[in-house]
Design goal:
Helix content: 25-40%
Order of helices and strands: HHHHHHHHHEHEEHEEHEEEE
Strand order of the largest sheet: 2-4-5-9-8-7-6
Strand content: 5-15%
Largest sheet: 7 strands, mixed
Number of helices: 12
Structural class: alpha+beta
Length: about 325
């Protein structure tokens, strides 16, 4: 089973400073020109009404979290000269780079990406910009259901998706990813690192397609009220993040055969509530799960559960429903 447009003030001196900043932080020439043309978030004054509104909108991303917001932090740190692998997992390496960035920006070096750190971290990108900062914006667009190839090149396709997103969020549809658009992207996609946000079927499907993950349905449908369909409607962002991480880390072909449609067992951590997916049982997937989790207990239906824990908390349960030829995976 599957606006009112606001005219921005001129900043001739600030433009020169921003150009230098862009070149110093790893933005390409086009990206640096972009930064000079449009004020970076660093120039939003915390005391202004706009600054307060933007600060209030940022999610908190910290150690132990995973997902597209974490990958965005990693990509932006790389763009700022603190290189990291954008694997979407906030581990000790990411925390160390965040702290180093915070110290350089005279922020509290706690390793937590909150409003003040976000405001210093994001950079304005627009048509003609290139680099990992653009790639971060592209991944966020896809995460919000506006799928675009994350190639780090801000072309006409990316501009069109940015404008469509901005219109949907009642922002000025100018195609420029400025501080307010960044805030809307990280607030509206994924789950702010927490994973509690639920996605539409279209949003979830776009993210999976971008990651090279497919789904199948015996009924060739996506209606969650039909047990023969495979629906992603109201699936939790953490669940989608988890499946994407499984694909990236295992290198296996991942096919989702069950989602949030009716017909599964109930309970809090259920398919219907968006915590679970069924993934086709292949030797590649099975070998990866056996190598990266611990055999824990047998369920009442006979399925052995392989568990991933961290700090005494259960993160993932893989239940081997071999009779149905899939893994029933729960992301807590």
């Amino acid at each position: 089973m599957l606006t009112t447009t606001r005219r921005r003030p001129r900043r001739s001196v600030a433009a020169s400073m921003l150009l230098a900043m862009g070149l110093a932080t790893g933005v390409t020439a086009a990206g640096a020109t972009t930064a000079a043309a449009t004020a970076l978030p660093d120039t939003v004054r915390a005391g202004s009404s706009a600054g307060v509104a933007v600060q209030a909108s940022w999610p908190t991303v910290k150690s132990g979290q995973r997902g597209v917001d974490v990958a965005t932090v990693q990509l932006l740190l790389t763009a700022r000269g603190y290189p990291l692998t954008a694997d979407g997992v906030f581990g000790s390496g990411t925390a160390a780079k965040v702290k180093a960035f915070q110290r350089a920006k005279h922020l509290t070096a706690d390793g937590i990406v909150g409003p003040n750190t976000w405001a210093k971290l994001v950079m304005t990108v627009k048509s003609g910009s290139r680099g990992v900062g653009v790639k971060a914006a592209q991944r966020q667009l896809t995460d919000n259901g506006y799928a675009v190839t994350a190639d780090g090149v801000f072309g006409s396709g990316t501009a069109a998706k940015v404008k469509a997103f901005q219109r949907a969020k009642h922002l000025t549809a100018d195609g420029i990813v400025d501080v307010q658009t960044w805030a809307a992207l990280v607030r509206g996609g994924g789950a702010g690192g927490g994973g509690g946000v639920k996605l539409s079927d279209a949003q979830a499907a776009a993210r999976l397609r971008a990651a090279g993950i497919t789904r199948s349905s015996s009924g060739n449908c996506t209606n969650r009220n039909n047990r023969n369909c495979t629906s992603l409607q109201d699936i939790r962002a953490r669940t989608i993040d988890g499946v994407i991480a499984l694909k990236q880390k295992s290198g296996c072909r991942i096919v989702i055969t069950g989602g949030t449609e009716t017909g599964h067992a109930g309970g809090t951590y259920s398919h219907w509530n968006g915590y679970k997916v069924d993934v086709a049982r292949t030797s590649c997937v099975t070998n990866y799960i056996h190598a990266h989790s611990r055999k824990h207990h047998k369920r009442g239906d006979g399925a052995w559960v392989w568990r991933v824990t961290s700090g005494g908390k259960t993160l993932i349960d893989y239940a081997d429903e071999s009779w149905a030829n899939h893994w029933d995976i729960t992301y807590y």
